[in-house]
Each structure stands twice: as structure tokens, then as C-alpha cells.
Design a protein that fits this description.
heterodimer, A: about 525 residues, alpha+beta, Dipeptide-binding Protein, domain 3, 12-stranded mixed β-sheet, 14 helices, 18 strands, about 30% helix, globular, B: about 325 residues, mainly alpha
């Protein structure tokens, strides 16, 4: 068995094109005795579900891209993998002026980019200005920023138009806020990378991307010689590749397969409640869903536990608000129970006659929305609501969502960190993502006050009040928080699933030979 | 002969222009917006307008088409919305994988079809013929993705003979290339092979009943000689056509199999481009598929007239 596995590793492990002086066998042996792979110091292959669309961290929105970029670029601060508290990274410390309008960051010393140029404050200014001036994908995160300056090489000052207590999560929540080198040729960023992170981009093709250890990494040197990301969209292929040691890690685990891995001796299964949430949104600008009673009637007809079980096979946790249990911002508020009589009473009160047809727009790109809609249809039937499931591909889905052409839709929000990420753009009147056209002055006022409240406790209270209003009005009908699920070969150490699903391989170590 | 080639080439050019207009119209008619997609769920109007203008999508459609066509004539198919890479490069990058898979699949298909189809035709309604019919029915009806997953579970999982997915370029590692090629090629080859088996059987049957074969038999030629010389040569003619069409189809990528086996071919590229509404890549890919079909058709026709003296140019 071992011999075959090794053979498979040797023949199936991709030897990446000898671009840029591939350092086969030149890297320092970390002494953990791994079989030397393409990059030396242990070959590690991770199977991910999709090919990154591009590698420009400021432009991509694809999770697959961020899985790779996570290991290549750094941000000024990073979320803690469990609590999401912002911790130092390229910035070692920061302070805020008493009026909350000026933030001063001190930068780490002795950091170099992968191409050898030293990292300075000018690189931070360049990176942030690029996002702001070119209105790139994440420019909204700088909406309150007036200016970014560098008084000296080790200091960055961000001045604000109004207090922004969640500035740290805005600049550090994910690698979309990565620090690039100011000398970069921007036209190459989609396919090349030059970061300060633990691994440097070595090569990419249509089937895989490979990274090699960056020996001058400013923090702890990674234990792996390199990481190869193989794109295996078919779960059966990814999981077979894992069991045959063609790959050592994958997140392509369908919910119905999770149970079978829990007692599998050859792999470790990592599961945490993630910060993603999935929901149903009804069109507040379209009768009869503009009536809060109708939306509440639907909320009373839904059996969340059954729906979550059917859609996610026990790998998600039902929740009536957005923020998952375990987060410091979690708010225990669950006003709805499955109560058909109450649901019928509400419909009557709204003067809505049944049978009533409700189109629910879902997308085949996120199959769990299709499953969830099927369950929802059966749950709303006794109430006299006929659900018409409208399955679209994601491009069409987004198009219809943008035009407001729907009765209701289902989707999830991924990778949120701060409560503002969970509630502001989606539920404030005229919010950029308020496609359901929900509008309540009380909610707006609470969200506006929460956005500038410097005191954490007071801020949490404001968001709780806002969340309560949003849930009561059924702006979104929150359903569940899915678990982040990943599996890897037994014996791998130094790796944990993060609640934001960022995949950090810089502390991961392969088992030493003889204990696998 | 040359007259035919010139006439057919001119026809092909007209078809290509037609295809390019149809493709352009279709991809822009389909709902969905590449800019909206690129922004994902975090939408911002200012960003959206800026991106649209940068991609030239705010221009009138006709102007967009002529701009694209003009560049295409000079061999410039534009750049991908998603990655910013030149479309030509993206297509070229995937040709080796597609060509490997198409070639290997046709090989598998012919290895199945010619012996099995011929044997069935020589003994119609025998046990062998019945078995062949049933097998090719199964091959035609079983969905490719299911077949692919089964092959993965058995030959990659249980037996561990081949990788479960992925592609190894021939230039890097010939042995790895072959190993990565076997399962996807068998999956598509079984399907193509089933189609070609039925076809071989009927064309051999037809050839056997032809007059000159009856004459040859009456002259007392041995069965084997008759088969080799008179039957197969005639029977293989139509097979050339069908194989050409199958090859063209395979060269435009076998989407389902490419997804299952993580095979970085043109089918996968086309699918990703549709999903992302990456118009330049999609237009370039469809143009190439049309070109492949036209060229292979032309080659088949020319081969035909070379092989069959009855067809005059």
C-alpha cells in the first residue's frame, strides 16, 4: 500500500514547468524528513473545487482565487481564525485619534517582497490608492476614507471622513485588501503575483497552480517546501484522489459524505461553524410580499430544522439571525417557531387570499439553494402558497436580482467578519445589496448609529436592535449557518479550519516518514 | 479537385462570418452580465459603470461587433474579461489537452468499433451480434458523468492504477501523460465507440450485399479475400466521414468528461466562459469550433473523392 502511494505521489505529482529557475532540490531541508517533492521539503497537493478566475487580489471575487492568494499576499492586519479578532500582520501596532478620524499604523521591519524589493509604507499607500482610485471590487470598503499617507517608511496614516470603528476588519478581513509592491506592472497581476506572504507563485496552468516556500518570509518560515493547488471540481474525483494520496487536502466534500469521513481512520475531518449565512429574501417592492404580515406568515410556516437537515445533511446550524453562534457578535434572537395557525392568521390579517403563487429564484451554481427551495415548497403548501422554483444559472440569476425581477430568491453571504458586513449593505434603505428593497427608518437609524459608534459594547447593542428589527420585518428570512468542512490526510499537523474559510498553509506540516 | 477545394474554402469563409455574427448575437442576447458577475454579491453602482466602460460594453452592439470582427481578422481575438489573458493564448494553452483526449478517444472508439462492428455484420443475429447490440445500446444510453465516476471509483480508487483526475502534459512526463489520459479517453471512447460500432455494422452489411461482392463470391473468391478487398474498403468509406465528425465533436471539447476528470480542455474553457459571460473567450472558442468542423468536413470530402473514384470533383 505504502509503495503504491509513493509511486502515485511520484508519477502523479505535477512537475511544474521549469519557469523562473525552478529550485528543485535547492531549498533548505527543514529537517522534518519529508520525501522531497518538486519544491523539496515535502510535496503537498490541495484539491480545490474550481479554477481561480484570476490572481489579482484587488479584482477577483472568486473563493478559489482567495484560497491561493491567502498564502501569497499579506494584509496590514489579519482575522484570528477562531474569533475573527483583528491581529497584527504587516502592521505591528496602531492607534486611533480621540475623534476617531485618524488611524496611525506602525509597520513591521525587514519585510521583503518575493522579488526581493523591501516593503515600505509607500507600498501600502499604492495598494489602497489603487483600490480607491480605480474603483476596484472592494472600493466600498474605503467609502469613509479621506486619505492614505506615508509620513515615513514605517508609518501609514489613514484619515477618515467619519469615525469608522470597524476600519480594521475593512482593511484586513480577507486578501482582497492585499498589499502589493508599488513597482508592480499592473497588467501582469491577473496571472503573476508578487506578495510578501509565506509562499511565492511558481507556476500556473489550466489544471493547477503551484507555490514554493518563500525563504525570506518575514514571519515564521513555512514547513512545506511548496503547495500545489489542483482543480478537481467533481467531488468523487477529489475524494478518490485524497484516499489514494494523489492529494493530501480537499474542501470538496459534499454534505452527504461528511458522516462517512468522521470515522475514517486515514483522514482527519475539520468542521467549524462558518461565518457564512443562507437566507430567503422576499421582494418588499412587490405585492403581496410588500406586506410584512405576508412575509411573517412565510416565516411561521417554515420548519428551519427540517429544511437545514434536507439541504445540508446536518452540516449546518439553523439560525434566525445572520451571525453564527460562537461569534462574539452573536445575538440570541429566535422569535419564529413553526406555527401554521399563526401563519394562516397573518395571511388573513393581510387580506391575502390563497392559493397564492410565489416564485423562488435559485441557482444551479449553488445547488443547496435548489434543494432548500424544494423543501420550502413542501412546507408552504399547507399554508396555501404554491412555490414555483425558478432555477437559473448564476449570471442570469444576478441579472434578475439586479432588475428586481423576482418574488423571492435564495442565496448565501460568504466570509463576513464585522456585524456591518452582515447587516448594513443588505438592509439599509438604498443599500448597495438591498435587492429586496426593504426600507424601515428605524432600522436605518440603528445601522447608521452603529456604524460610527466607537464603544464596542454600545455598538454591539445597536446591531442587536437592528438585527431584531430586520428579523421581525423579515427583510431576510435567515435560515442557517453552514459548517466549513475540510478533510486532510491523517498525520498532517499545524492546520485548522478557520471560521472564515481562509486556507492558511504556512503552519501546516506533513507527517514525517514512518508515521503514516 | 482544386476547384472543389477553392469552392469549399469560400463556402467555409461565408459560414465562419455567419457563425461569428450568430455567436455574437446569441451571447449578448442571453440574460446575464459579465460585469455584474465579476462584482459578485458585493455590488456598487460606480464600480459597475467603470468596469462596463472599460470593457467597452457601453458601446452599441453593432459597433462592438465590428470592432471585434476587425480585430479577429488580424488574428487578435481580444482579451478575457476574467483573467485579462489574450483569448488566443487561452485557447492555445488548452489545445494539447483537448487534442490528446480527442485522439485517444477516437483510438479507443475505433479499437472497439471496427472489430466488433465487422464481426457483428458477418454473423447477423448471432449471439455475438446480439451482445454487440446490447453493449452499444448501453454505451449510448449511460450518461458520461456516471460512467466517468464509476471508472474513477474502480480504477483510481479501489485498484489505484490511474490518477482520479487532472492532466499531465506530455512534454513534462510521458508516463504521467498516458496514465492521466486513460480513464477520460475510455469514458468518451466508449460512447463514441458505441455509435461507431452500430455504424460499422450497418455499412459492412450494406457492402456485403452489394452486387460486386456477390459477383466476387460467385467467382469463387475466398471469404477472407472478399472481406478484405471488396467489403472493408467500401465499408470504411462512410466510416471515415463519421469518424471525422466524431473527431470534430471531440475537438470542441467534451464538457461533461472534462469536468469530471478535471481535464483542462476547450470544453471546460467554453463552459467557464459561458458561466462567467466571458464574451471574448466564448466568441473565440466558438469560432474555433466552427473552423475545426469546417476544416475536418473539407478534409473528409477531399479524402472521399480521393478514395472513391465515383465522386467527381
Amino acid at each position: 500500500m505504502r509503495r503504491r502511494a509513493l509511486l502515485a505521489a511520484l508519477t502523479a505529482s505535477p512537475l511544474v514547468a521549469a519557469s523562473a529557475g525552478c529550485s528543485v532540490g535547492e531549498s533548505v531541508d527543514t529537517g522534518n524528513g519529508n520525501a522531497a517533492g518538486p519544491a523539496g521539503g515535502g510535496a503537498f497537493v490541495a484539491a480545490i473545487s474550481a479554477q481561480p478566475d484570476q490572481l489579482d487580489p484587488h479584482k477577483t471575487t472568486a473563493y478559489a482565487s482567495f484560497q491561493v492568494l491567502e498564502n501569497v499576499y499579506d494584509t496590514l492586519v489579519v482575522p484570528n481564525g477562531k474569533t475573527l479578532e483583528m491581529e497584527p500582520s504587516l502592521a505591528t501596532q496602531w492607534d486611533t485619534s480621540p475623534d476617531g478620524l485618524t488611524w496611525t499604523f506602525r509597520l513591521v521591519e525587514g519585510v521583503t517582497f518575493h522579488d526581493g524589493t523591501p516593503f515600505t509604507a509607500a507600498d501600502v499607500v499604492f495598494s489602497y490608492r489603487r483600490i480607491i482610485d480605480q474603483e476596484l471590487a472592494n472600493s466600498a470598503r474605503f467609502a469613509t476614507v479621506a486619505d492614505v499617507t506615508a509620513p515615513d517608511d514605517r508609518t501609514v496614516v489613514i484619515t477618515l471622513k467619519r469615525p469608522t470603528p470597524n476600519l480594521l476588519s475593512r482593511i484586513g478581513a480577507f486578501k482582497g485588501m492585499a498589499i502589493l509592491s508599488k513597482d508592480v506592472d499592473e497588467s501582469t497581476l491577473a496571472t503573476k503575483a508578487n506578495g510578501t506572504g509565506p509562499f511565492a507563485l511558481q507556476g500556473s496552468s489550466a489544471s493547477e497552480i503551484s507555490l514554493e516556500r518563500f525563504d525570506d518570509y518575514w514571519s515564521r518560515a513555512p514547513k512545506l517546501g511548496g503547495v500545489t493547488f489542483q482543480f478537481l471540481p467533481e467531488p468523487a474525483a477529489a475524494l478518490t484522489a485524497l484516499t489514494t494520496d494523489q492529494v493530501q487536502w480537499t474542501d470538496n466534500v459534499p454534505p452527504q459524505r461528511v458522516a462517512s469521513f468522521e470515522d475514517d481512520e486515514s483522514v482527519d475531518l475539520g468542521r467549524v461553524a462558518s461565518v457564512d449565512y443562507w437566507y430567503l429574501a422576499m421582494n418588499c417592492a412587490k405585492a403581496p410580499f410588500d406586506r410584512v404580515e405576508v412575509r411573517r406568515a412565510v416565516a411561521f410556516a417554515v420548519d428551519r430544522d427540517a429544511l437545514t437537515e434536507a439541504a445540508k445533511f446536518g452540516t449546518a446550524r439553523p439560525n434566525q439571525t445572520a451571525i453564527p453562534q460562537g461569534s462574539e457578535w452573536y445575538y440570541d434572537y429566535a422569535p419564529f417557531r413553526t406555527d401554521l395557525d399563526e401563519a394562516k392568521r397573518l395571511l388573513q390579517q393581510a387580506g391575502v387570499s390563497t392559493p397564492l403563487t410565489m416564485g423562488v429564484m435559485v441557482t444551479s451554481d449553488y445547488p443547496e439553494t435548489v434543494t432548500a427551495a424544494q423543501v420550502l415548497a413542501s412546507q408552504l403548501e399547507p399554508l396555501g402558497i404554491t412555490v414555483k422554483i425558478e432555477t437559473e444559472d448564476f449570471a442570469t440569476w444576478l441579472d434578475r436580482q439586479g432588475r428586481g425581477d423576482f418574488d423571492a430568491f435564495m442565496l448565501g453571504w460568504l466570509g463576513n467578519v464585522d456585524p456591518a458586513d452582515f447587516y448594513e449593505e443588505q438592509h439599509r434603505t438604498g443599500g448597495a445589496n438591498n435587492y429586496q428593497k426593504y426600507s424601515n427608518p428605524t432600522t436605518d437609524d440603528l445601522l447608521d448609529r452603529a456604524a460610527v459608534e466607537p464603544d464596542k459594547t454600545a455598538r454591539k447593542t445597536l446591531y442587536e436592535q437592528a438585527a431584531q428589527q430586520i428579523v421581525d420585518d423579515v427583510s431576510y428570512l435567515f435560515l442557517y449557518n453552514p459548517d466549513a468542512v475540510q478533510v486532510w490526510k491523517k498525520g498532517i499537523t499545524g492546520y485548522e479550519v478557520r471560521v472564515d474559510k481562509a486556507v492558511d498553509f504556512d503552519t501546516l506540516a506533513l507527517p514525517t516518514r514512518g508515521d503514516s | 479537385m482544386t476547384g472543389l477545394a477553392v469552392r469549399r474554402t469560400l463556402q467555409a469563409l461565408v459560414v465562419l462570418v455567419g457563425v461569428s455574427i450568430a455567436t455574437f448575437a446569441l451571447v449578448h442576447l442571453v440574460p446575464g452580465d459579465p460585469v455584474r458577475l465579476a462584482l459578485g454579491t458585493r455590488f456598487d453602482q460606480g464600480t459597475y459603470d467603470a468596469l462596463r466602460a472599460r470593457a467597452g460594453l457601453d458601446q452599441p452592439l453593432v459597433a462592438q461587433y465590428f470592432s471585434w470582427f476587425g480585430h479577429a481578422l488580424t488574428g487578435d481575438l481580444g482579451v478575457s474579461f476574467r483573467s485579462g489573458d489574450p483569448v488566443t493564448l487561452l485557447i492555445l494553452e488548452r489545445l494539447p489537452a483537448t487534442a490528446s483526449l480527442a485522439g485517444a478517444s477516437i483510438l479507443v472508439a475505433l479499437l472497439i468499433a471496427v472489430p466488433l462492428g465487422t464481426a457483428s455484420a458477418l454473423r447477423p443475429r448471432s449471439v455475438l451480434d446480439g451482445a454487440g447490440t446490447v453493449l452499444s445500446q448501453i454505451g449510448i444510453s449511460v450518461p458520461e458523468f456516471w460512467m466517468g465516476i464509476m471508472l474513477i471509483l474502480v480504477f483510481a480508487g479501489t485498484l489505484g492504477w490511474f490518477p482520479a483526475g487532472g492532466y499531465v502534459p506530455l512534454s513534462e512526463d510521458p508516463v504521467g501523460w498516458v496514465r492521466s489520459l486513460v480513464l477520460p479517453a475510455v469514458t468518451t471512447g466508449l460512447v463514441s465507440g458505441s455509435v461507431l460500432t452500430r455504424f460499422t455494422r450497418s455499412s459492412v452489411l450494406e457492402a456485403l450485399s452489394a452486387e460486386h461482392v456477390r459477383t466476387a463470391r460467385a467467382k469463387g473468391l475466398g471469404a477472407r479475400a472478399v472481406l478484405n478487398w471488396h467489403v472493408l474498403r467500401n465499408a470504411l468509406l462512410p466510416l471515415v466521414t463519421v469518424t471525422g465528425v466524431q473527431l470534430a465533436y471531440l475537438l470542441s471539447g467534451v464538457v461533461v468528461v472534462e469536468i469530471v476528470f478535471a481535464w483542462p480542455g476547450l470544453g471546460q474553457l467554453a463552459l467557464q466562459s459561458v458561466q462567467a459571460r466571458d464574451y471574448p473567450v466564448l466568441q473565440g472558442a466558438v469560432l474555433l469550433f466552427a473552423l475545426v468542423f469546417l476544416v475536418l468536413n473539407l478534409v473528409v470530402d477531399l479524402l472521399y473523392s480521393a478514395l472513391d473514384p465515383r465522386i467527381s470533383a
